[in-house]
Amino acid sequence: MTSSSSSTPLTIATIAQISAMVSEKLTTKNYITWQDQVLPIIEGISMANHVLYDSKEPKATITDSDGKEEQNPLLPIWLQEDRLVKSLIIATLSPVVRALTVRLTSAREVWKTLEECFANSSKQRARDLLRKLQEVLKDDHPTLHAYLQEVTMISNELAAINQPIDDGDKVYWSLNGLGDKYESFVTAMQVRPPPPPFDEFTNLLADYEKRHKSKFANENQTLIASCGRGCFSGNNRFFRGGTIFRGRGGSNNKNSSMHSDSPSPSQTMSQKTNKAQRPAIICQICNKLGDKAIRCYERLNHAYQEEDVPKALVALAINDPQDPEWIPDTGATSHLTNDAGNLSNLRPYKGRDKIIVGDGKKLKITHVGDATIRTSSGNLLLKRVLLVPQIKANLFSIGQFP
């Protein structure tokens, strides 16, 4: 049965008009969207039998009532319709996809070939995109904006292949990837049914981060100011709660955050030298008058910093936009980082020490290196920084500075 009775006769002129109605040509990535546009058009002009079913070409001849063979009048009509439907489909293909239809003779062959090539791959792509959305993490992106941008991009790609996700799912997966730093925000959103529209959610999240950063920056500025007033005293001692850190003279750590299976060497000077008998020389390491580099107790101390470092630390603004990733810690006994990219002169850590965190867990130290904190007033060099992949923040120990 042909479609010659169609209310919309298919001609070359109508093919041009109809193909212009398809907003995007078929590529290797948008089969479902393309099919969703083209198939209703073909059904609307009553030509679906040429693409959805194995519509066979009518016989060339038929036998009349007298038993005589004559040409089948339906054949030229069917051939004309089929060629026009084929032309309509090809007109909506991109050049790359069009190459797949070369030498195919019928509209059904073209449609079936495209379906076999792209239908299954589109389903797989939808699964891949959904998995990608579920696994995207804020910690893998430099900014919150970049994170939300990827969530939006993946959602748009799913919509482009006719697999859209609603705002509730977008909000859910966005919350799932934020991480511990946003725990209070995540909790607040989870107890607030129903989830807001995604645009409103992104505004709320951006506002939360802005207020959180402002509060964190103010706390850090207060910490640095307090260190400038009282952290470093005349005898080079620094106090925090029940923990005492000595400067160059020795160490008395009652509550160390470093757990060691072996004793550490003592750095306590046992004798004093009469200053009047010392030659008027200045040590190249510690800058003390009368000391010699060859006998300096700091020559093997890799954590030693110059005398003026505490002054630089007091002036350091931790919310400096050039290097916001390092946090001052008055309780840490060593500089710590979770990113090997922050370190130079990297070498494996061969000791048995571990880092003890607040919940009592012992974290493994894998490497040791040097780091540089960039500030608006210059660079601050940190020696013997421990690489601890499981630590959640980069910390520099104020107690390491004399």
From TrEMBL:
InterPro entries: PolX-like_BBD. Residues 243-275 are annotated as: Disordered. Residues 256-266 have a biased composition (Low complexity). It comes from the Eukaryota. Pfam families: Pol_BBD, Retrotran_gag_2. Residues 326-401 form the Retrovirus-related Pol polyprotein from transposon TNT 1-94-like beta-barrel domain. This is Retrovirus-related Pol polyprotein from transposon TNT 1-94-like beta-barrel domain-containing protein.
